[in-house]
TrEMBL record:
InterPro entries: AP_endonuc_2, AP_endonuc_F2_Zn_BS, Xyl_isomerase-like_sf, Xyl_isomerase-like_TIM-brl
One example of a Gene Ontology biological process annotation: base-excision repair
Bias (Basic and acidic residues) ranges: 352-364
SUPFAM superfamilies for the chain: Xylose isomerase-like (SSF51658)
Gene Ontology molecular function terms on file: DNA binding; DNA-(apurinic or apyrimidinic site) endonuclease activity; phosphoric diester hydrolase activity; zinc ion binding
NCBIfam families: nfo
DNA repair recorded as keyword: yes
Species of origin: Pichia californica
Protein name (database record): Apurinic-apyrimidinic endonuclease 1
Alphabetical list of SMART domains matching this protein: AP2Ec
Length: 381
């Protein structure tokens, strides 16, 4: 059972043993209902070595400030349960923040919300903060960069540079997106540009979401694809700029541009992706956060998946137990994968027909002009 959440006596009885000496810092996004300090007791119950939380409602522009008493309780519990707030905790920003918004007034509103989050981090002595970079919304920028296809990334960089100057130590972690719509940072080229625009790159990091990467067309489901992605990341971004991972399988197929998280091993990424992740030394020591769908009670769902990740450490691809586990999980997710694959194929067919129709119309218009030109030429002669 979860611990009783009391401000005066916030004590947790772990349901899952914490592998505190592990080099792989597996954890999950946990609740903070009743007070931000409750996230710490929820995390220890799950056996987390790292955890994420919201610092306020993610679906409101403004929330009450964190009180001095709540901040002290949070810090005391971190010390009690041996969480280093500077390295082990990765808050997630408000869903409303859009630092690529081309509208000045709306951009400023997003910036204020971002800055409020960052100051909450520093009040709690938290050293990392993760957020979605945002979208250009398909609109022209109101600045001189109106015709610049990278205007959204430049807007994002402006916000980060300003936020860094107005805070002291928190590292702002930008999450990669699924390549959908007009969102920025759906590819590594955007991050490459972003880091060239930063005044203090050491104060900014990258969070790679495995589901988002797969949705954007980076195939992390096999060893070749996994290594290819990280080689490109090293070349375009730099492994020193990797601050964290969000560990999620994908309900949708490769390149579907759908942000649909799935439980580990049940999606198109398969358990092989997470075996590779659990054994990659490049990922040691950074927050590896689960955001998979919750089934039943949070403590059993995330706690079991953390144990699954720990079980994968040291496993070989041809391990009979690994093969059996992988097949078992794939069966559990088969129906959803089939449904999503069918939707993706229909979407591709619809898109192809629309493109063919547009091309045919373009050809008809071209033929019409050529015919008119030929007739005119004959009349002139």
């Amino acid at each position: 059972m979860p611990p009783k959440k009391s401000k005066k006596n916030a004590i947790a009885v772990p349901s899952f043993e914490r592998a505190i000496n592990s080099k792989m810092r597996f954890g999950a996004h946990v609740g903070m209902a009743g007070g931000v300090y409750n996230a710490v007791t929820n995390a220890i119950t799950l056996g987390c070595n790292t955890f994420a939380l919201f610092l306020k409602s993610p679906r409101r522009w403004e929330s009450p400030p964190i009180t001095d008493e709540d901040a002290k309780t949070f810090k005391d519990l971190c010390e009690k349960y041996k969480y280093n707030p500077r390295t082990d905790i990765l808050p997630h920003g408000s869903y409303f923040i859009n630092m690529a918004n081309p509208d000045d007034e709306k951009w400023k509103k997003s910036f204020d919300c971002l800055l409020d989050d960052l100051k909450r981090c520093e009040k709690l002595n938290i050293g990392l903060y993760n957020f979605h970079p945002g979208s250009t919304l398909g609109l022209a920028d109101t600045k001189d960069t109106a015709k610049d296809e990278n205007a959204g990334v430049r807007r994002l960089a402006d916000g980060l540079n300003t936020a860094i100057k107005e805070t002291n130590f928190v590292r702002i972690v930008v999450e990669n997106m699924a390549g959908h719509g007009n969102y920025v940072c759906g590819n590594l080229d955007d991050f490459n540009l972003l880091f060239t625009l930063l005044d203090d790159p050491k104060r900014v990091g990258v969070c790679i979401d495995t589901c988002h990467s797969f949705a954007a067309g980076y195939d992390l489901s096999n060893e070749n694809g996994w290594n290819k992605f990280w080689t490109e990341f090293e070349e375009k971004v730099g492994i020193e700029n990797l601050a964290s991972l969000h560990v999620n399988d994908s309900m949708a197929p490769l390149g579907a541009n759908r942000d649909l998280h799935q439980k580990l091993g049940q999606g198109f990424l398969t358990l092989e992706c997470f075996r590779l992740l659990a054994n990659d030394k490049r990922l040691e020591g950074i927050p590896l956060i689960l955001e998979t769908p919750i089934e039943g009670k949070e403590e059993t769902s995330y706690g079991e998946e953390i144990k699954l990740l720990e079980w994968l450490v040291g496993r070989k691809k041809d391990d009979p137990e690994f093969i059996a586990k992988s097949e078992e999980l794939q069966k559990l997710g088969l129906k959803i994968r089939e449904e999503q694959a069918s939707k993706f194929e229909k979407k591709k067919t619809t898109k192809r027909k629309a493109e063919e129709k547009a091309e045919s119309k373009k050809t008809d218009i071209s033929s019409m002009f050529k015919k008119a030109k030929r007739v005119k030429k004959e009349e002139d002669e």
